[in-house]
Fold each of these.
Amino acid sequence: MTVREIRLNKNLTYRTFPYRCEPDSLEFRIDQFAVDDGSFTEPEQPHYLDLDEYRGWDTLHLRIEIRIPDGLLGKVFPEFDDIPGMLVVAAHCRTTYLREGIVVEDEPIRSGTYTRDVELSSDSVAGSLDLRPLLVRTTDTDAGDEYATEAGVFVADGPRGRVDFEDDNAGDEGLLEVRTRTFSEEGEDSRFPPEDRLHYLDLESDPGQPIVWVNDDHTQVASLMAGDGGSQYDRLTRDLVWNQVMSPVWTRLVTIAAIEYDADTDEWDPEWQAAVFEDLHDELYDDLTPEKAAERLQEDLTKAPVDATRRVEDAVQSVLDPATCYMKHIQGLTD
């Protein structure tokens, strides 16, 4: 598996619900772990595992545990017997752009404690791995507006877990935040776009911390982007939406970073601009360092903007690979 490093992304949190939902109600922990053929060991913290001392590992075994407390299911499901829910752990690695739903227990669900062994290879994760437990509805229902009625919608979650691996690029991680906001609630003088827009790249609030705001007016899309639902269709659609959002975001970030680059300084300011060219300099210009690539693109944007913007778009497509993303989605619909 080829690992493509895309560090400028972060988990989207979604905490407003138009139906019965119980955030932070599941009990979740990393119960034990083992590296390669070693024995299982209990981590020092239930929600955090630091593997920095295990450099060079090939396979990581995680034993995760989720507990559904008594009384929770009755709050979020209208059914009394054979409750159509499943437990899923949403795994997200920002460095390798891995997003995967790990099914811990399938329907019908009951209160109680569930464990699942997860195996990860070193070529699929790097930097860090975020783990989010979710209780997801598995069937549609016409129970009314009070409850979640569509399959794939999560109705409860719990504390997030995190696994940190050795990270040679620790300073670059998390430089782009993703948050939700309801654009329709903004005033006329707001910098946010109209309510029919899906997202907004905010570089005004804090030039050193780019933020992608996802419009909460589009509830189903925002919920999907948050990682809710574990079906194959949901995963393929989620990747497609993320790709659609990140393409213009990357294009704008690269262009602005090039325009603002100062060749006379020893350090990048703001820092996120360095991360942009660390990832894209080879795609923009062969055999140029990130600094030289920024300087060259800055010149090209002034002298030949049509060619320069085409070069940026080609580089972003090379990194995000939208063609493959679309093909997977089409194959998923036809299979």
Note: The domain at 27-172 is CATH 2.70.50 (Coagulation Factor XIII; Chain A, domain 1).
Amino acid sequence: MASLKEIKTRIASVNSTRKITSAMKMVASSKLHHAQVAIQNMLPYESLLEHILKSFLVSTPDARSIFEESHSEVRRVALVVYSSNSSLCGGFNSNVLKLMEQVIHEYQKQGVSEFVVYPIGRKVAEKVAKLQIPSAGDFLELAEKPSARACAEISRALTEAYMGGKIDKVELIYHHFKSAGSQILTRRQFLPIDLSTESIGSMNDRDLTSNLVTAKAQEYLRKKGASKKREQEAAVPLNDNFLVEPDLATVMQKLVPKLLNLMIYTALLDSNASEHAARMVAMQTATDNADELLRDLSLQYNKSRQAAITSELLDIVGGTVNN
């Protein structure tokens, strides 16, 4: 049995660790709130672009884009993978890296041998370097400070490579943020793009109303939200006949790249919010475990202390009887 001094030292150590995890949980909660605000600020632009593109595609069945056209043979694949720059966020990074390796193995079985990864986050950049997979650059700063302009540059580089035949397919791998307690690991095709009206806006199912992550809180939110499901806005033509100037191809060349830029930026915001939510959950779990361990150690300390007092009393009483 451990001595009283050892147990007391352990209690002090666990208590110190608990203070750290509790503080990190509060910091992650604050960052999650800012990440949710960033998504809310992006939603009006996303909704309006979706409405314009849906109406245009429904009213103009002949509308086509070069980014919809699949290449006859897939030989070169680009992956945009989102992770974090730091640890202590549960299985957030490991799940992304496992899916990335799984996707690469699937393509290798199909005969694809050339890959290039756009690593957004230090963890995926380190993994790519370890696997000796070609990297498209350094995007570590984006994982900490999301930037729409930087995402547009990534999107432009990918679209130019796709049109030039340097890349045959592009996929995004990230965590889709649904709520503070739910982040869905997602594999999404970026190019060739799916412009069907059913697919546009299908990922907009986020709950940005709460930062609570306890089981009871999540159950309450699920029950409350069951009667208020988001209804997809129907794609109704604004006009039976569009007058397109200067021409249909030019308009599509302007609209579709904006949608592609938004996909890269939205995935980054989702990943950023998911990281903070995962870290908040991990630190909350660590704090709860520390509380439970402190209770056990306090009980053990009190039992050991009582046993020591009882032993001393027995020694005193025994000495008195002998005298």
Note: The first strand starts at residue 76 and ends at 82.
